Amino acid sequence: MNRIIPLILAVALFMENMDSTVIATSLPAIAVDIHTSPIALKLALTAYLVSLAIFIPISGWMADRFGAKNVFRAAIAVFILGSVACAISNSLPAFVVSRFLQGIGGAMMTPVGRLVLVRATPKSELVAAMSWLTVPALVGPLVGPPIGGFITTYFTWHWIFLINVPIGLIGIWLASRFLPETDAAETPPLDFTGFVLSGIAASGVVFGLSVVSLPYLPPAIGFITVAVGLVSGILYLLHARRAQNPLLALELFRNQVFRSSVLGGSLFRIGIGAVPFLLPLMFQIGFGLTPFQSGMITFVSAIGAIGMKFVTALIFRLAGFRRVLISGSLVAAGSIAIYGLFTPETPYVLMLAILLVGGFIRSMFFTGVNALSYAEVSAEDTSKATPITAVFQQLSIALGVALAGGILEVSTSIHGGPLTLADFHTAFFIVAAVSAVASLSFMRLAPDAGNAVSGHGRLSTPKTLEPARSPGE
Predict the structure, then answer these.
(1) Which of 111-125, 184-198, 240-254, 336-350 is most confident?
(2) Predicted TM-score of the model (pTM)
């Protein structure tokens, strides 16, 4: 397997992962400086994820139309501009808009990079390739919390966004130097109607859920926005049935393996999306720690994630996708629930050990579910599967942030006081339960699901995979 391509493409994942963990660690300090609350700032986190959900669907079309290499480099440049804009923001609206701009770049970086990798990798090597793609990316969560906490505590939070500038420039140079040239291909016209409807649906639901629990805007706006999003989603489903080349090829969901990987992975990511928001806030507000101290605790989960990458392929080859994903989702959900038992009196060594194991299991789960998404998708349909999986990933993470903030807001409204440690405990228990439900989706998989990718059962040759059929076939 050529490891140069996944390592170069991982630069994009590195920036995205480090950026999200840096911001989560520094939320309280940013909130004070721009005169808002940490809970209100979840709107900025959600704005980034909403931007991803809106623009990811056209990433495959853009890569085919203008060349994957060109789109990848341009996306990094947009992400750098958004980072600089975040650094100079002095209000909540400006910060939200800047994060949205970052999301436009992120919407093209990761999906296009993953599409290049999947097309260049045989199915039998996909699990290992996914592991190599995410190893450097996981360095982001590793260095993000301590660096972000250190800069926020001893300097100023503005500088945490400027870290992306040199990293992004290096990524552009590496892509120009080493990635193969990709020519533009003939593509059908952009499904503009589908783009508008899917964008309104994604942004309406996620943004609306955030506003409902946000003291910054009236709750009625949130309910109206959610309703608009749901109606747009229904209109898109009707449009996709009669469109010749719909933006999102929903017929892929007829494949049980693809459906389970996307829906089960999305349920699990709701809990994972909430953790980076809840954990630093609990350590800083509930425990009274500084951002740097908080970051030095939370970064341990990334060590477990990196360590798992070197044995993930072996685990799936020995046990298969079904067993590993069922057990992995339940154990990982249990680790999230345990966070709800942390108190200032909990020994730090014990917390670090639990975070380490949690990162270990979640890394294994994500590598497996990402590879399983392509296990029974034909080569011609990879460009259709990539935006669908990416959209569902980002929407579920955004819903996790919205759910976490909503739980905290409801909890504080009930007892009528500021945030307490008990509020965070309640939030962890609820999001853990949501993540555990993901196991039901994987229980429906056949025992040999994805064996051509995992190598489980000692298959000598990959089985012939038929592409998902389109309506009417």
Answers:
(1) 336-350
(2) 0.76
Report how far Cα 133 is from the mean position of its chain's Cα atoms: 15
The residue with tokens 């392509």 is: 374
Angle between helix 4-33 and helix 139-154 axes, rounded to 10 deg: 30
Residue 68 has a pLDDT of 81
Output the CA–CA distances (angstroms, integers) from residue 87 to 50, 84, 90, 156, in the order listed: 20, 5, 9, 10
DSSP 391: H
- Rounded to 5 degrees, what are φ and ψ at 99? -65, -35
Query: Residues with Cβ < 8 Å from 421, sequence gap 6 or more?
Result: 282, 286, 287, 343, 344
Query: 34 with 87: CB under 8 angstroms?
Result: no
Q: From CA 202, how far away is CA 53, in angstroms rounded?
A: 6
Q: Which residues have CB under 8 Å from 443's CB, separation 6+?
A: 322, 326
Tell me the one-letter amino acid at 468: A
- Percent of the chain as helix, strand, coil, to the nearest 5: 80, 0, 20
**Number of neighbours of residue 31 by Cβ within 10 angstroms:** 19
Q: Give the range among 71-85, 102-116, 414-428 with minimum mean pLDDT.
A: 102-116
Of 295 and 98, the structure prediction assigns the larger pLDDT to 98
Instruction: Say how far apart CA 275 and CA 269 lie, in whole Å.
Output: 10
Give tens-digit pLDDT for 284-297. 888 988 877 887 78
